[in-house]
Amino acid sequence: MKIKFLIAICISFAFFGCKKEVKTTYTFDDTSDKAYLKVIHVVSNALVTPTSAAIAPVNVYLDGEKINGTPVTAGSGVYPGLEFAAVKSGAAVSMNVKMFTGATTPEVDILTKSISLEKGGLYSAFLTDTIPTADVLLVKEDLSAVADSGKYFIRFVNLTPLSAGYDLYATTDLAMAFTNVPYKTASPFIQLPVGSGARSFGIRRTGVATNLATASVTPVAGRMYTIISYGIDGGTGVRVVKPAFYTTRFQTPL
Asked: Is the pLDDT at 4 greater than 60, yes or no?
């Protein structure tokens, strides 16, 4: 019995002693010449059929290369979420946006435009207007500001075709945040107190106290948020004026 036990130990040592070392090699994409892009889709009549109850999602191509995985949904379904996607830079990058109509049906071109993306720059691309004149509002971002204690940043982007100008009223704070923001315009960021709980905002025609739509944000101190209006001014059904919001900057710069 003792001999068998010693033999088993020797075999065990021999087996583990001969085990080869495995090395894993990691490769990383070179981002030294990249720009950084966030895509927000609110082309209000991007409908698969005239009676569709919702705006169809889209796929985005830069110089023929698709940059998103799953299709980008309308409103708050921004790509790529809290971050910015590393994309190719250049003075004349061709942006092509195609409406996703289903897994087994061809995509439909809705927008082609040459855009300039500087190396290292942060950009938000707001897909707006209506087919056949869909357009992109390209905003170069500076997200370096640091909020005062107990405050957050908010801005308003008017992406509603046929609108002359919109106000954004901070309902919870009883204060006008922005006034007369024209169509295809992003306001600057301003600071507001975080307060307690959700903060409500009303989107209004300039000088009118009636809300066309309302948005609610539960802010975190130091973060940056964007509220947008989309739909069509005076529209009904799927084209009614709607709000959306997303977190533009999740972390405060060091």
From this structure: no
The span from the first CA to the last CA of the chain, in angstroms, equals 67
Q: Which residue has the tokens 């991007």?
A: 46
Q: How many other C-beta atoms are found inside a 10 Å radius of the C-beta of residue 104?
A: 5
Strand partners, 186: 157
DSSP state of 17: H
The yes-or-no answer to whether 31-141 and 145-254 have a common fold is: yes
* The pair of three-digit structure tokens given for residue 17, joined into one six-digit string: 């002693």
What would the DSSP string read from start to end of 21-80? Answer: P----------TTEEEEEEEE--TT--SSTT-SSPPPEEEEETTEE--SSPBPBTT--BT
d(CA 81, CA 78): 6
Residue 223: other Cβ atoms inside 10 A: 18
What letter represents residue 84's amino acid?
F
Q: What is the pLDDT of residues 130-164, one digit of tens each?
A: 999 999 999 999 999 999 999 999 999 999 999 99
Domain 145-254: top CATH class: mainly beta
How many Å apart are CA 156 and CA 201, to the nearest integer? Answer: 10
Given a cut of 60, whether residue 16 has pLDDT beyond it is no
Domain ranges of the chain: 31-141, 145-254
Element (H, E) at 137: strand 135-141
Q: Quick one: tokens of 144?
A: 């370096």
Q: Could you say which of 3.30.70, 1.10.150, 1.20.58, 2.60.40 is the CATH number of the domain covering 31-141?
A: 2.60.40
HSE (CB half, 13 Å, CA atoms) of 141?
A: 23
